[in-house]
Every structure is written in C-alpha cells, then in structure tokens.
Amino acid sequence: MRYSFAQSALPVLFAIGLAFVLQHFVGSLAWAGLLAVITWPLHERLVRRGWPRPLSAVFLVLLLVAAFAGPGFVLVNALSSELAGVQRLLAHLNEAGVPVPAWLTRLPMVAEPAVKWWNEHLAQPGGISSLVRSIVGDMMPQLTGAARTWGSIILANALYLFLALLTLFMLYLHGPAVVRLMDRAGDRLLPVHYATLRRIFPLSVRGTALGLCSVAILEGIVLGIAYALAGAPAPALLGVITGYLALVPGGAPLSFTMVSLLLLGQGHSGAALGLFSWGAVELFMVDKFIRPKLIGQRVNLPFLAVLFGLLGGVSTLGVIGLFVGPFMMAILFGWLRGGEHAASIKAPERAGVVDKTEAN
C-alpha cells in the first residue's frame, strides 16, 4: 500500500516541480498546444494532399502570424495619415492660438478660472507647445520609468510569442510522436478516465475556438454596420478592429465605447448614445446566449455550464481560461452523466491532436 501511494504520488510531485521550473513559459506551451489542437485538421488535410509536413507547418505558422498581425499593420497605415492631419491641425492652432470655446464660458462656478487658464495657456500663439513642454518636463521621471517597464514587458512577451510559435512548429512536425507519448503516459496514470479526457479535450477546445471566432466575426459585422449608420469615420476599418478585439474579453465593449466617445466629441450626441445602447444590448445577447450555445454544442453542455465555465475561466486565468473553463465543465458533466455522456461523444473519438491509429 505504501509503495502504491509513492508510485502514484511521484508523478504528481514531479509535475508540480516541473510546472514551478517552467512557470514563466507555461503560457507559451499552453497556447502552442491549443493552437495545434485547433488547426490540426487543416494541417492533416494539407499533408494528405501531398504537402510535406515542414512546408505545411511553415505555412500554418505564417498564416496565424498574418491573421493576427495583419490588422495591426492596416491600423498603423490608416492611423499614419490621420496622425499627419492631426499634426498639421495642432501646428496651425499653436501658431494662431486656440480661442476660448463658447461652452466653457457657460460652465457653472468654474467658468471664470477655466477661461482665465485657457487665455493664459492656449489662446496665446505658441501656448500649446509651451504647455506640452511643461507637462512633459514635469512627467519625465514617470515617463522614463514607464518606458523602461513597458520595454521589458514588450521584450518578455516577444520572447514568449517566439517560443509559442517555435513550439507550435515542432508540434506540427512531431505531433504523432508527441501524442503517442501522451497516450502511453495517460493510459498508465489515468487508465479509467484518460480515454474520456482524450475525446473531450479536442472537442472542447475546437468548440471554444469556433464560438470565439464566430462571435468575433459576427460582432465585427454587426457593429461595423452600426458604425456606418451612426456616421462614424472609416466604419469598415473600425468594424475589422472591433472583430479582432472581440477575441479578447472586454475588447468589443472597449471598441464601441471609444467610437461612441469619438462621435460624442464630434457633437453627434444622439448617434453616440444610440451606438452605445445598441452595442450594450448586442454584447449582452452575444455573450450570454450565442457564444455559450456555439461553444457547448460540440460537447453537449447546457447553457449555464458553458456560461459559468467562460466567466470563471476568464476571471481566474485570463484569456486562456476561455478554453480551460469549458473543458473542466465538460469533464464535470462527463462524470455526472457517466455512460450517457461517453456515448454522446464517442463518434468523434479520433478528434485529438492527431489520429490515434496514426500516432501508434
């Protein structure tokens, strides 16, 4: 009995120790594994059509990079012309001075000091540049510290991204061998539950990816149309940006809130209020009904289970919790339903990272 306990506890202790050693790179490994599971059917399809595995791996990695980095380049290109126009406007205002707006003189209690400050700093020619130099000079120590902090964060995330893409590339190349080793370890450590876990995991991950991507496309289209109806500038570009931000929790509300503030700043208060109200209603419907339905249908999960899995996963683990939460809920309902749930997901038994027969 004592030997059996030691034999079962040793792998658990080793896994904890390994997780501690690799704690800074667990995210990179997890994202590489998730992307491999999500895109593996496409990789296998390319291989069956005669593509060499290295060529298919390079193509899919570059495709993923382009899919996520492409909108960033489009946004930078679009903003460059806008920033040039803003720069010309600021230069003109700096030369001539900015007159006191009429609404400022009508503010209760603070109108007199506000108008006085405006006349001293902004109404005079060259006032904007003097004000900017004063603010930058006062904030220079904080800006320097922030630049150092953000610089180290950017470099660290760039390293994690590189390691994730490198791991993903190696998984594309050696996926069958990796799954063969995992199957042997799983059958040895969890002989009763491993077969169910192996079936549920790819279904849950791909279902979550389907729900996230489908909802992101839907929100990009719907809110892009709403931007156009509200009179926002470049609604197509803003719709694309909203779609990509919708992949991240909180991205869609941030997007339509910023566009609403932009419309409000342009004086279109009715359009801003209408856009914000429609975005809030649409976001509620999508996040509470459509997304859980899309994610739960592959593993036969009820609405509330998917909803709490998504909310709990995101609040605890961040973005990666979007995949972990539904997976744990799928395991829970697999145990609760027993044979009924196993039978309901038995058909896609070969839906793992690679086919089990191929891995053997």
What key phrases describe this protein's structure?
360 residues; mainly alpha; 14 helices; 83% helix; elongated; disordered C terminus
What topology does this entry show?
Blueprint: H1 2-21, H2 26-48, H3 53-96, H4 102-105, H5 111-121, H6 127-189, H7 194-230, H8 235-245, H9 251-265, H10 269-296, H11 303-317, H12 321-337, H13 339-344, H14 356-359
Helix pairs in contact: 2-3, 2-6, 3-6, 7-8, 7-9, 7-10, 7-12, 8-9, 9-10, 10-11, 11-12
Please give a structural write-up:
With 360 residues, the chain is mostly helical. Helices cover 83% and strands 0% of the residues. It is elongated and about 80 Å long. The chain starts with a helix and ends with a helix. The relative contact order is 0.09.
Strand content: under 5%
Question: How many strands in all?
Answer: 0
Radius of gyration: 27 Å
Order of helices and strands: HHHHHHHHHHHHHH
| Main sheet summary | none
Oligomer: single chain
Number of helices: 14
Q: What can be said about this structure in brief?
A:
The chain has 360 residues and is mainly alpha-helical. It is built from 14 helices and no strands. 83% of the residues lie in helices and 0% in strands.
